[in-house]
Amino acid sequence: MDYALFLPEIYLLLTALAFFCQSLWKSSARLNQGIALILSGVGVIITFYSINLTGEIFYKAYRIDLFSQIFKCLISLGLFLIITIGQRIKSIEDQYQPEFFMFLNLCSLGLMLMVSSVELLTLFIAMELSSYSLYILIPIRKEINVGKMEAAIKYILFGAAATGIMLFGMSYIFGITQSTYLADILNKMPELLGQPVAVIGLLFILCGFFFKLAVVPFHFWTPDVYEGAANITVSFIATMPKLAATALLLRLVSLAGAGAADLIQVLVLLAAVSMTFGNLAALVQKDLKRLLAYSSIAHAGYVMLGALTMNTVGFAAAVYHITGYLLMNLACFLVLCSVSREGENVTVNDLSGLYRRSPLLALTLAVGAFALAGIPPTVGFTGKFFLFTAALSQGHLTLVIIAAVNTAVSIFYYLNIVRFAYGKDPDGLPEVTLSFSNRLLNYGLIVAIILMGALPTLFIDLAKTACETILS
Description:
- The chain contains 20 helices and two strands.
- It is mainly alpha-helical.
């Protein structure tokens, strides 16, 4: 086996082992966070170095191609940004920080394994590795409130149910194709899609990824988990699993091809319901994490616009949008973690007068919120534009109109956040001081969100090239 093909995964495993060893003796929080930041930064370099590698290992159950490597780069970059955001956090007990970083790396390893898995059992093991790590991460929080245990239990129960449904679907697909390899299933699916059992099996498998994406009706865990878990943990849950889930959604939907009319109709329904429910529920939220939770449900619906096109343009638009979602969501969580110095939850009122307390944070929040709302020239606008045009080209006019109306609805609650930051007085709320690295991260996210939205050609072309590998 060429170990260079597996280098990012090996590095994450070794990093997790390093933190396991670190947990065996007492160490300061500053040391733990410094080690995590350096190791995650090296991981980004290693992963980007391997972006052009291609090959198959583990008896062709694991494929390394441009499609998987792009998502691995995004996962490693997201991990680095989240650890940078989490510097000097107080919501995680100092004594548990080595374990916290260990499970962050293990979960990221599971997500990387997911995007390269092209065999059903390998895919299942990768999903369980990432899921079990999150089951442990969610309740790791100081006793600020009692909601963390409820959040953990809900996530476990819904995760177990989604896993059971997914396994049931895998048994159907294996029963009719006599193979667990996606390549073999791909060759046999066109003639089998006329059978209801094939469509049901594929939909059941997709349920596992709908759970990760928080698509309706697999969304019930989302607001409570966001509210109950530590802020830094939520910034991970809100972004990283969605990257891997999008990659697998596209890889599995590509099995059906453009002729799967029944599957397309189901995806259209789920996309419309997710967008509408997520945006309407977000309108009345006061807790910032719950608001972002319902926002994530809506954005899952937007991503599905690209998946249901069943072509390269739509898939590339979905990859582009989920990449932009990573950046604009992390911008909002950077502000949330900076304002919440003791790890407590942040309400919209806590943002009052932020432009006076920290002008840079207020600008980051405004750019992130504008991007999520889809206001030009941000990456959120460009991503939605690509998704809408891709869906429209396939004749989904009604769905695009629903998406456009939902975008207009979402502008209200996103701009309401900005209104509190710029239009309200601080009312005695303290100033927010930022470290040098925190300032750099603010500037970096602002520039990335605007630059990627204004100059999307390079990334969208790369995404199209990558998506051609799974549709060819």
